[in-house]
Amino acid sequence: MKNTILFILAILSVQVMLAQDVSLRQTVKGTIIDEQSGNALANVNVSIDGINSSGNITDSLGNFKLRNVPIGRQTVLVSLVGYEEAIIRNVEVTSSKEVVLEIKLKERIKKLDEITIRSYKQKNRALNEAAVVSARQFSVDEAVRYSGTRNDPSRMAQNFAGVSGSNDARNDIIIRGNSPSGVLWRMEGIDIPNPNHYSTLGSTGGPVTILNTNTLKNSDFLTSAFPAPYGNAIAGVFDLRMRNGNNEKYEFLGQMGFNGFEFGAEGPLSGGSKSSFLINYRYSMVATIQKLGLDVGTGSATPYYQDINFKLNIPTKKAGTFSLFGLGGESHIKFAAIDEDNLYSTPDGSLRERNFRSWTGVTGLTNTYFFNPTTSGRFTLAVSGFDSKYREDFFDSPKPEKTAFYKKNIQVKYSAGYTFNKKINSKNQLTAGIVADLNRLKLRNDYIPDGDSVLITFFDTRKNATLVKSFANFAHRFSDKFSSNLGLYHQIFTLNNTQSIEPRWNLKYQLRPNQSLSFGTGLHSQIQPLEVYFYETKNNAGQIELTNSELEMVKSTHGVLGYDISFSKHLRLKAELYGQYIYNAAVEKEPSSFSMLNAGADFYFPDKTNLVNDGKGYNYGVELTLERFLDKGFYYLVTASVFESKYKGSDGVWRNTIFNSNYVMNFLAGKEFRLNKKSSFGIDTKIAYTGGQHYTPFNIPASQAAGYIVFKEDEANSLQNDPYIRLDLKLSYNRNGRRATQKWYIDLQNLTNRENIFIRTLNPKDGTIGVINQIGFFPNINYMITF
What does the pLDDT look like over 499-516, one tens digit per residue? Predict the structure, then answer.
């Protein structure tokens, strides 16, 4: 405790030294590019609303620089003859860091002087213009500001309509009743592994994110009917983009909070080259405190993790722009059997010690080259790796064999791809690309089955498998009000030579300046989790067979109709009606209630063999979003979704998926108070109200007879937990000094300490049913300094 007090006093002393203020002004700079071609635009007029700033015309490379901009929230105005005017509101200007923007302008089709078309660059519009339905811009500013997000993009996405994540311990993204394993993570145009600590092969969530909001820029989040550039997913896409470092000035960052202790730096690689670097490193907060000798209440089960995010951006005069980016994370934890805080005993009463370690990394190199102002190509090389190891040992067993469970999965993926983009004219654009992913796999799983005492090998393989993906998308604008995208996606999986050809189509019509209709449909597919293909079973002759190796891709058809109306420049309502039909889902060959559509929200996949593609499923629902964008320091966001999510196993019975919570509602609001020219204070709150997940009842007599847990499989997912309700309250304080900006916040999560159900347990010896609740009241404290 003494060390903690000294540490806080040290922070306050730094704050006093840095608080001395004179001129609190900053530089706002960036690049203006054509939205369709991506080429830089010269002679664009850029200004700050209400401020007479100099340097407001872009140069031949599309660059602009506005000096002496007052700190606070500012509005950037961008205009060029022949293009729609862009207005970027609520740009946060601080004293410590220059603001770097990348702004896209859309060319008008009708170039009449008397017509003024304004494009408000807000979150309801995706960065990828091919995505016109079920797509939303992920704002880094919101991920930091909103209560309950823990600076985690996944938890931020859980605020969007149709998205739920009622598990306090994990950040899985459940979209419209789909499994989180149906979500695709992409960064800088490259499909990446699960970007979370303590993750497993095939899953997409985890307890703590590896992603760092301090290195990201605004990105796209898509929940249905995504266009042709995206594939190998049936639920949604998180298309992340990393920002470039400041290419003219060195800037630094320090931060501590729930995600850990963090240090960051950015700046030019060499003078006058316009090249830059950006790097952030983070280490577990709990592990650091534990090493200082302080007790944080986790016993010996201390979560250790560290991660790094980086990007180098190198423009050249003749060879285009090169970018080298990457992220990596390592995490491990040990649960000691004799630690009373983490006592783990199985239903048979044996004590076990558990060890888990995971490693995730990706590095990519891209080159973007413009053949002419309207034609460009992007070449990509990447390598990504994933390694997880879980071991469970008997602690008090008299048997020589101590291992009860062992699992190790290693995946190394080599990716190469090329994307071609051609802006034919203001009406037409063609984009096409191809990517090949070579997966090198090393998988092993040994375990003792329930009711047995012999360790068996469930799978042990070393294989290569290649997934080749290609697409073409043609965008046509009939007028400034009416546009459409027609695309085709294809993928082939060489492990068993299965393939899928998928047409995609969407359109958008601007009914009035403040109202629009959108529609999208398409076919989507996804390969099975890689380890599932290699599950082993023995035939009648005692020979090992891979009975899942010929599984085809699960497929899904989407249909979405959307309506969007802006009541003012700050208030908007969006409604979407959607339907999804899933087929080719993996189910057991013999009649049962099992389906892979229910898997993916845990650290492992079900150990089912003899799977076939006879399963089906469907989701349908309606979503509403009412949003007041931040204005005069005040915002609110209300999202509501009502839906059904059903599946059918090989027994032919339609049942609820475990993700069918039936409804998801969120209310977020916040107010930012300007205390003086240097300081501001903020209050943000969130109320989440979600239907409980479905679960299968225990078969108590059968469990008592067997000595391990047995479920009533014929009543799968017939029961539902109570609703998940959580109230969060966040208090923040920002202070700008002459050379540094400091930000504090305390996020009081689950303020009412509500006992939301996490899981139900059964002791098969006496038939006692227990309940494990989710995380109770949790204060998340964070401090950040930039200079």
Answer: 999 999 999 999 999 999
* Cα distance between residue 90 and residue 74, in whole Å: 5
CA atoms within 13 A on the CB side of 777: 6
How far, in Å, are 68, 154, 236 from residue 405 at the CA level? Answer: 62, 30, 33
Structural Rg of the chain based on CA atoms: 27
Angle at 326 between CA 322 and CA 328, to 5 degrees: 170
Torsion of CA 237, 242, 243, 246, to 10 degrees: 180
Relative to beta strand 183-187, strand 236-242 is parallel
Single-letter residue type at 371: F
Decide: 66 and 47 in contact? Cβ < 8 Å: yes
Q: Are 168 and 777 in contact (CB under 8 A)?
A: no
Of 411, 520, 391, 515, nearest in space to 463 by CA? 411
What number of other Cβ atoms are within 10 A of residue 178's Cβ?
Answer: 27
Nearest to 35 by CA among 114, 126, 116: 126
Cα–Cα dist 150/424, whole Å: 44
The structure tokens 């650091």 sit at 288
* Residue 246: count of CB within 10 angstroms of its CB: 20
Nearest to 327 by CA among 340, 341, 308, 353: 308
**DSSP class of 329:** E
Has residue 88 got a pLDDT over 80?
A: yes
d(CA 133, CA 423): 22
Give 336-364 pLDDT, tens digit per residue.
776 544 444 454 556 778 899 999 999 99
The answer to whether 557 touches 435, Cβ cutoff 8 Å, is no
Q: Could you give the CA distance from residue 235 to residue 179 in angstroms, rounded to a whole number?
A: 7
Which tokens sit at 481? 């009000």
- Do 223 and 157 meet the contact criterion of CB atoms below 8 Å apart? no
Report the candidate in 649, 685, 545, 687 with the shortest Cα–Cα distance to residue 147.
685
Find the helix or strand (DSSP H, E) in which 485 lies: strand 482-493
Q: Indicate whether this model's pTM tops 0.85.
A: yes
Strand partners, 382: 364, 415
